[in-house]
């Protein structure tokens, strides 16, 4: 679970769209697992889930329909897609809004529907662009917790964020300055009980 941080305009969204295959790099290549991040048709790889900064939800459809679309596009039948969509909405606390039109929802509610749509596909790579910017602390923690669950499941999770509390919850952070990456790794975990002094031992001693 990787935080992508940097000031406004530093290139966070651009990086995520390149990683996700939504944009083509002007120079260089973007690869995942040894292959290009786009399919031959120029679409993103099927295993990629997105939370777009502008959400990309369809205003004339309900919250559940917006989430189930992601599954329908992957060949899941309508009944199962709706059931899983409502479950995914529940993971971010908006299942009671399942039948409400997108055009009737608040900013924070929309953001959580967008997160649910990314969660529902069980993506191999989940790209979340400022997924908590509209949320209060409690809901931010819920969303970050769900992204962590995706990482625990084995997904690669990239989170572009301005929120230090969100970056803190990630395993690593890349900080962008004018489109360039500086890498900051998280400090190593504390030693296990009984091994507190190992770090201070000289090689060859026990
Ligand atoms: N389609 C585009 N064509 C040309 N320049 C672009 C395009 N999209 C973004 N840019 C520029 O690239 C730079 C990086 O933009 P980007 O949206 O990646 O920043 P960001 O770090 O996500 O910013 P924010 O935190 O404000 O969302 C900005 O200077 C922006 O104006």
From TrEMBL:
Molecular function GO terms recorded: ATP binding; ATP hydrolysis activity; transmembrane transporter activity
Disordered as annotated region, ranges: 183-206
Pfam families (alphabetical): ABC_tran
Gene3D superfamilies in the cross-refs: P-loop containing nucleotide triphosphate hydrolases
Span of domain ABC transporter: 2-203
Superkingdom of the organism of origin: Bacteria
Keyword tags: ATP-binding, Nucleotide-binding
Gene Ontology, cellular component aspect: plasma membrane
Protein known as: ATP-binding cassette domain-containing protein
Organism in which the protein naturally occurs: Nocardioides islandensis
């Amino acid at each position: 679970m990787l935080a992508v941080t940097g000031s406004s305009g530093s290139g966070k969204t651009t990086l995520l769209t390149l990683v996700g295959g939504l944009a083509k790099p002007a120079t260089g290549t973007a690869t995942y697992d040894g292959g290009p991040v786009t399919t031959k048709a120029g679409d993103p790889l099927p295993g990629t889930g997105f939370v777009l900064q502008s959400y990309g939800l369809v205003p004339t459809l309900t919250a559940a329909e917006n989430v189930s679309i992601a599954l329908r596009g992957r060949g899941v039948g309508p009944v199962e897609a709706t059931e899983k969509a409502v479950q995914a909405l529940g993971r971010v606390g908006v299942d009671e809004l399942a039948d409400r039109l997108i055009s009737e929802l608040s900013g924070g509610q929309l953001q959580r529907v967008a997160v649910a749509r990314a969660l529902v596909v069980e993506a191999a790579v989940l790209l979340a662009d400022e997924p908590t910017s509209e949320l209060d602390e409690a809901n931010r923690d819920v969303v970050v917790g769900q992204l962590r669950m995706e990482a625990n499941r084995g997904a690669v999770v990239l989170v572009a964020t301005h929120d230090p509390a969100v970056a803190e919850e990630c395993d690593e952070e890349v900080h962008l300055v004018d489109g360039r990456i500086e890498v900051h790794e998280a400090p190593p975990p504390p030693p296990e009980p009984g091994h507190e002094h190992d770090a201070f031992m000289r090689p060859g001693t026990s």
